Amino acid sequence: MGSYKVKRIILTNAIELELPSTIKIHLVVNVSRVHMYKDQVEGQKKEWPLPVIIKEEEEYKVEKILNKRKFRGKDRYLVQWKGYTAEEDTWELRENLENARDLVERFKEEYGEKSR
């Protein structure tokens, strides 16, 4: 999401972040959700891969499905995009991953989920 300061340590596994008011999440988060910020190496250019065009729509290639969770009764998959860093990973609905069916199925098999 960005780089934010740790305001204070609540418990050994929970910290309070200093977030802008525009971010609508709870200020206290589990430490497993926080990673040390690594600044871009000086002179290094960040070049993101261009999308591919499928049926006249821009699509990005999925590298891997990292996780799955239910949100408002629907399955969402955490997607690692090919050529992008972890900061760009996003939670996507199953219907947004039609062109990555094989990766979704591989994730389900790896974690013991039956195909639907």
Outline the structure in words.
- With 116 residues, the protein is mostly beta strands.
- The protein folds into two domains: 1-35, no CATH class; 60-110, Beta Barrel (OB fold (Dihydrolipoamide Acetyltransferase, E2P)).
- It contains one helix and eight strands; from the N terminus they run E-E-E-E-E-E-E-E-H.
- It has a three-stranded antiparallel beta sheet, with no helix packed on it. A three-stranded antiparallel beta sheet has the order 6-7-8, covered by helices on one side.
- A hairpin with a 2-residue loop joins strand 1 and strand 2.
- The radius of gyration is 17 Å and the shape is globular.
- The two termini are 32 Å apart.
- 4% of the residues are buried.
Q: How many helix segments?
A: 1
Instruction: Using the CA coordinates, give the radius of gyration.
Output: 17 Å
When the domains are counted, the total is 2
Mean pLDDT: 84
Overall morphology: globular
Q: Point out poorly predicted stretches.
A: none
CATH fold-type name of the largest domain? OB fold (Dihydrolipoamide Acetyltransferase, E2P)
Number of strands: 8
Topology, element by element:
Blueprint: E1 5-11, E2 14-18, E3 28-30, E4 52-54, E5 57-59, E6 62-71, E7 74-81, E8 90-93, H1 101-110
Antiparallel strand pairs: 1-2, 2-3, 4-5, 6-7, 7-8
